[in-house]
Amino acid sequence: MDLMIFWAVLLGIISRPTFGKELGNLPHIIMIIGDDMGSNDVSYRGSNQVTTPNIDALGYNGVILDKHYTQAICTPSRAALLTGKYPIRTGMQGLPLNSGEDRHLPEGIQTLPQLLKDLGYSTHMVGKWHLGAARRNDTPTGKGFDTHFGYWSGYVGYFDYMIQTQVESINQVYTGFDLKEKFRDAWSEQGKYATDLFTEKALEVIENQDKNTPMFLAVTHLAVHTGKDNLVEVKDEKVMNDSFGYIQDLTRRKYVDALLQLDQSVGLIVEKLQEQNMLENSVVIFMSDNGAQLVGDYRNGGSNYPLRGSKSSLHDGGIRNAAVLYSPLLKQKGYVYEEILHITDWLPTLYSLAGGDLSSLKGMDGFDQWQSISENKPSKRDEILANINEITGYSGIIGYKGRYKIINGSISSKHDIFGPELEDNIDYDIPAILNSPVNKAIRQLNASQNYLNTESIQNLRKISSKLNDDNKCKNSKNRKNPEICTSFCLFDLMEDPCETENLIEDETKQVIISGLKARLAEFWKQLVPQTNKPVDVNSNPAKYNGTWCTWLDDELCVKTPIKSVS
Ligand SMILES: *[C@@H]1O[C@H](CO)[C@@H](O)[C@H](O)[C@H]1NC(C)=O
Ligand SMILES: *[C@@H]1O[C@H](CO)[C@@H](O)[C@H](O)[C@H]1NC(C)=O
Ligand SMILES: *[C@@H]1O[C@H](CO)[C@@H](O)[C@H](O)[C@H]1NC(C)=O
Ligand SMILES: *[C@@H]1O[C@H](CO)[C@@H](O)[C@H](O)[C@H]1NC(C)=O
Asked: Which domains are assigned to the chain?
């Protein structure tokens, strides 16, 4: 039997939908997502350049998801998260969406917010969408969110909320404002720092939540993507220099400053959940959508070290990303989950936790992993399709429970490299973790639970920073950049997690290689062509009072006053 069908059948049988659960008892679900944040930029992974106290405290009190895989870029990752399907099934496997591009999730597709809404949740998104905005129906509130405050594009300026796009067909650049409260242009918020603004809006959602209704809140931050002029923007350069002057590379210094604002946002959100007596019945997830961008225009100063590859690469630096989960509902807490998970797993996992009937989900690639995570049981997943780009042929798959990966080709020789090693500038700030808003909020939950202490933090960090210590990885004599894959490459991720040695010619691995190639060929047969389009010349913000509007619902858009057009 096909493995996929096998699991679907099995899950259908063993899942016990909790029909009749009181609405008020369903857990609140809070997802906080960082953008282009590197896997080495959370200090629990071992970096001694900066401490991220809130994110670390969330993981140490809950579960650190050590092998959480995403897609390699924004649009595909967000599509996978919201649909539970690999992007090859929704046409989203290609390049990220441009502002002014008419592309969207398929009509009628089940999305995580819509499914939760059908179970009685109120559903809210604050921040980035990046899954289409040609018509109102393509935007967050057309795809299952009750409310959205944020932007529809891939990124915006951190203060001005402007975004440009190149219109190839007419060789022009379109520029427009992109900050919306549902469909209304939020001009009055222009000038506020994005991380502060999105945090403020997230806190409002939590405060205004009816306490008898379960809440799904997705906070999809701009940080730590690049903003205006392709730079990460900071709140206050003077404060940044005072705090992080020890970091020489200015791009990196800005990144670290923006990263700590993001970390503080996590603290404020968890603190607010506790204040509102919601944390005791919440599931809080923090993750990055893909690896840090190491090269080119959008290089943000993030680090995936010692993993190989940038955002866009199918090497682990692009797809094996930081993720942690905290919930009082976990049966086992304070440990590192070391089996593979994929971003598509969240939909069935959370739907099932919310009492949904898994057998009603159609064509899932994700698995319900709640028991795996909550009880440290084996992952339900044997393989992960990293992606297939049917136009370039660039593709990859991980199989054998995460041990082996084949990649066909390369995104570019610049993306498939190792980023620089970070300097060890500071001592790991354990008191900052113990005193973080996240740790304090969790401590207030239940006086009899196991508290974090210096020793438990050190133990957990040792496990979750294995990559940084591992002599297979960091200190490997193969550490100089290995050859770029020109056709198929095979990597043994257990022996060589940093993908330094291509085993494609290894006689003893031929059965594994043909097995993985056969699985990849299966997925090739199932893919729907990518739906990328050129930027539509009719999307020009100059027509819409300087804003990106849903131009295919033109009659609903604010028009530029006549006199300013001429
Ligand atoms: C911060 O430091 C950078 C580089 O050292 C410098 O160029 C910049 O002017 C400084 N900014 C402020 C506000 O001090
Ligand atoms: C491998 O990639 C090449 C392009 O580099 C492509 O032509 C070929 O179809 C791909 N093969 C498979 C089996 O994916
Ligand atoms: C507090 O924790 C204990 C032990 O983990 C548990 O038995 C008890 O139900 C918890 N109480 C509350 C109010 O969550
Ligand atoms: C048009 O844009 C200006 C900013 O350029 C803004 O102040 C004004 O409120 C907008 N008009 C409408 C109707 O949204």
From this structure: 26-419+430-443+451-468 (3.40.720.10)
Give per-residue pLDDT as tens, 482-492: 889 999 999 99
For 232-269, the pLDDT digits (tens) are: 999 999 999 999 999 999 999 999 999 999 999 999 99
Give the neighbor-by-neighbor strand order of the sheet with 384-388: 384-388, 395-399, 404-408, 488-492
Which residue lies with its CA nearest to atom 8 of ligand 2? Answer: 393
| Torsion angle in degrees (nearest 10) through CA of 422, 425, 431, 436 | -50
CB of 237 closer than 6 angstroms to any ligand 1 atom = yes
Quick check: 30 and 219 in contact, CB under 8 A? yes
| Predicted structure pTM score | 0.94
**To which residue do tokens 């010349």 refer?**
537
Is the distance from the beta carbon of residue 409 to the nearest atom of ligand 2 less than 6 Å?
Answer: yes
Q: What is the DSSP string of 423-492?
A: P--S---HHHHHTSHHHHHHHTT-TTS----HHHHHHHHHHHTHHHH-TTTTT-TT-SPPPPPSSEEEEE
Q: Are 163 and 178 in contact (CB under 8 A)?
A: yes
Q: How far apart are CA 270 and CA 276, in angstroms?
A: 10
Task: Using alpha carbons, select from 180, 189, 184 the residue that is nearest to residue 149.
Answer: 180
Ligand 1, atom 8, lies closest to the CA of 237
Strands 282-288 and 28-34: parallel
What token pair was written down for 295? Answer: 């090269």
Instruction: Determine which residue's CA is closest to atom 3 belonging to ligand 2.
Output: 393
Just list the catalytic residues.
Answer: 74, 130
